[in-house]
Amino acid sequence: AARKTLAVGRPPFRHRGQIDLSVDDTGSLVIELTDAPNRTIFDAQNARSLPGLIVREEGEEPTADETVNAAYDGLGATYDLLLAAFERNSLDGAGAALHATVHYGEDYDNAFWDGERMVFGDGDGEVFSGFANSVSVIGHELAHGVIQHTANLVYRNQSGALNESISDVFGALTEQYLAEQTADAASWLIGSEIFTDAVQGVALRNMLEPGTAYHDDVLGTDPQPGHMRDFVTMTEDNGGVHVNSGIPNRAFALLALDLGGFAWERAGVIWYHALTGTLSATATFTEFADATVSAAQAEYGNASEEVRAVERAWRAVGVYD
Ligand code: ASN
Ligand code: ZN
């Protein structure tokens, strides 16, 4: 709950969420406002026009379509993580509505953030089943929205790989927060729910052990490096944004394991402050690493164990010498 000062004489006053009234020791009225999400789920009905038809709005009961309900719940889990861990009220920090479209296209094998909403395909049923069933995927896509409102990392080369990696971090944290999982109990997998049984693989990505998520005839081998010595220079995938993201992903997972406890409490807070501070839109891995060190210094003190752990993590993946 946050205490807010109400501007008297400037109606209308709007608030979505819980309002608690109480009286303190001095007899003053205390009004406590708890923020809440504002979700709308749309159905594209297997076409590719967006946003589609509204099928569930905030506060409405579950529908008969489990994909709709999974999307609604996943948006809620991501909202909860942002508020609880980072005191951030939605994607823009000002309670922005959360919109998602399900059943996008036919056999569509992806989920994405289009700049305004998140969009889920149903998958082809051969390799991928529905993307809305994965909380880490939902957290990942919505994190692209948070990044758009903050550092706005350019989606190419190292800044693009940071954009991808920070989205994976928020995706993993959303899943861990929902399950109340400590860092050592977490899977560190992104999208562990979306492959069919026909695939030789466990997830889209493995943050702790990049490069080991799948090895399959159709998908090939997980191409992610986990150390700068294996950094991949390529033109496809916007310069390997989904490939080299393995390096900062592993730095985060190692830090979270090193600090122990809930990953969103210290490792997550450090990453969040690095993202929302003065980070440049074209940041390199080293610039982001420096931003995490500065964030840890500001939050926990220059000589803190958190600062030493952050530096260790970046050394472990070769971003620091
Ligand atoms: N699911 C992918 C992502 O969010 C879609 C894309 O490549 N834009 O990174
Ligand atoms: Zn992404």
UniProtKB/TrEMBL annotation:
<dbReference type="InterPro" id="IPR052759">
    <property type="entry name" value="Metalloprotease_M4"/>
</dbReference>
<dbReference type="Pfam" id="PF02868">
    <property type="entry name" value="Peptidase_M4_C"/>
</dbReference>
<dbReference type="GO" id="GO:0004222">
    <property type="term" value="F:metalloendopeptidase activity"/>
</dbReference>
<feature type="active site">
    <location>
        <position position="141"/>
    </location>
</feature>
<dbReference type="InterPro" id="IPR027268">
    <property type="entry name" value="Peptidase_M4/M1_CTD_sf"/>
</dbReference>
<keyword id="KW-0378">Hydrolase</keyword>
<keyword id="KW-0645">Protease</keyword>
<keyword id="KW-0482">Metalloprotease</keyword>
<feature type="domain" description="Peptidase M4 C-terminal">
    <location>
        <begin position="151"/>
        <end position="319"/>
    </location>
</feature>
<feature type="active site" description="Proton donor">
    <location>
        <position position="242"/>
    </location>
</feature>
<feature type="domain" description="Peptidase M4">
    <location>
        <begin position="31"/>
        <end position="148"/>
    </location>
</feature>
<dbReference type="Pfam" id="PF01447">
    <property type="entry name" value="Peptidase_M4"/>
</dbReference>
<comment type="function">
    <text>Extracellular zinc metalloprotease.</text>
</comment>
<dbReference type="GO" id="GO:0005576">
    <property type="term" value="C:extracellular region"/>
</dbReference>
<protein>
    <recommendedName>
        <fullName>Neutral metalloproteinase</fullName>
        <ecNumber>3.4.24.-</ecNumber>
    </recommendedName>
</protein>
<keyword id="KW-0862">Zinc</keyword>
<comment type="similarity">
    <text>Belongs to the peptidase M4 family.</text>
</comment>
<dbReference type="GO" id="GO:0046872">
    <property type="term" value="F:metal ion binding"/>
</dbReference>
<dbReference type="InterPro" id="IPR001570">
    <property type="entry name" value="Peptidase_M4_C_domain"/>
</dbReference>
<dbReference type="InterPro" id="IPR013856">
    <property type="entry name" value="Peptidase_M4_domain"/>
</dbReference>
<keyword id="KW-0479">Metal-binding</keyword>
<keyword id="KW-0964">Secreted</keyword>
<dbReference type="InterPro" id="IPR023612">
    <property type="entry name" value="Peptidase_M4"/>
</dbReference>
<dbReference type="GO" id="GO:0006508">
    <property type="term" value="P:proteolysis"/>
</dbReference>
